[in-house]
Amino acid sequence: MFTIGEFASIGRVSVRMLRHYDRIGLLAPARVDPDTGYRFYEVGQLTRLSRIVQLRGFGLGLEDIARIVCGDPDPAREREILEAAGAGLRREIAESRARLSRIEAYLRRREGVPVMSTSDTIAAELRRVEPQRIAVLIRPAPGAGPENVGPVIGPMFPEAAGLLAAAGVGDHGPAIAFYTYDESPGADGDPADPSCGDGLTVTAGFVVPSRVREVPGLEVSDLPGGEAAVTTHRGEVSGIGETWAALVDRVREQGMELAGVCREVYWTPGDRPQQEWVTDLVQPVRRVS
């Protein structure tokens, strides 16, 4: 038997972490002294601890680790969790590489070195878009980025589609979404509070026929028409920010400026893998006077 300090030292984790693993049921001690409350561990438990440490090193959260190490072994479940973690890491790497490329290009421009514009990597067109009627849900998100927006917007489209179906609107158009930052005061009602403006409002739903006036549970409104820069993003939504940045470069190169919030129009059913998604970015613009 090892004391908790000995077990922690051998397993290269802190005593505090072992106590936490015990509290959440991830790794309970083999014995707890009924008089002193001291925890003791068996040598065989080092295998499980090493597995937990390894999975933590992969970047998994404790909830996912528990799904792997607790209960009967399930290779399929373990593979699913690890593949999802790998996909997340690949997205982070791609986003980091893109940010690094922008930094390097910015520094080269400051030094007077010719740099190919990021807008050369996308196809974009300036065109006049017609007004659109939309039926949408409006929900708050804690902030920008896929990690904040994804859990909020994901259920919104199926819910909106269900409400449209219940209202007999079966001939709606593609899914659409746009995002606006919250201007409300901070947690204490003080506009100077650091939490002020951190939140994001997610508007998501579908383009609907102009005859639709009301849909129970949805906000029905008209998006104005006008001049817009339009490009198509193909692939995972985590890369939309890069495509939008390139679109903004193209807008500026054409002597125009942004005139409103960009709309994302999703042409691919949400049950398809994101690698197959086709998304139009519709950025309202105006000519610089």
From TrEMBL:
<feature type="domain" description="HTH merR-type">
    <location>
        <begin position="1"/>
        <end position="71"/>
    </location>
</feature>
<dbReference type="GO" id="GO:0003677">
    <property type="term" value="F:DNA binding"/>
</dbReference>
<dbReference type="InterPro" id="IPR011256">
    <property type="entry name" value="Reg_factor_effector_dom_sf"/>
</dbReference>
<keyword id="KW-0238">DNA-binding</keyword>
<dbReference type="InterPro" id="IPR009061">
    <property type="entry name" value="DNA-bd_dom_put_sf"/>
</dbReference>
<dbReference type="InterPro" id="IPR029442">
    <property type="entry name" value="GyrI-like"/>
</dbReference>
<dbReference type="InterPro" id="IPR000551">
    <property type="entry name" value="MerR-type_HTH_dom"/>
</dbReference>
<dbReference type="Pfam" id="PF13411">
    <property type="entry name" value="MerR_1"/>
</dbReference>
<protein>
    <submittedName>
        <fullName>DNA-binding transcriptional regulator, MerR family</fullName>
    </submittedName>
</protein>
<dbReference type="InterPro" id="IPR010499">
    <property type="entry name" value="AraC_E-bd"/>
</dbReference>
<dbReference type="InterPro" id="IPR047057">
    <property type="entry name" value="MerR_fam"/>
</dbReference>
<dbReference type="GO" id="GO:0003700">
    <property type="term" value="F:DNA-binding transcription factor activity"/>
</dbReference>
<dbReference type="Pfam" id="PF06445">
    <property type="entry name" value="GyrI-like"/>
</dbReference>
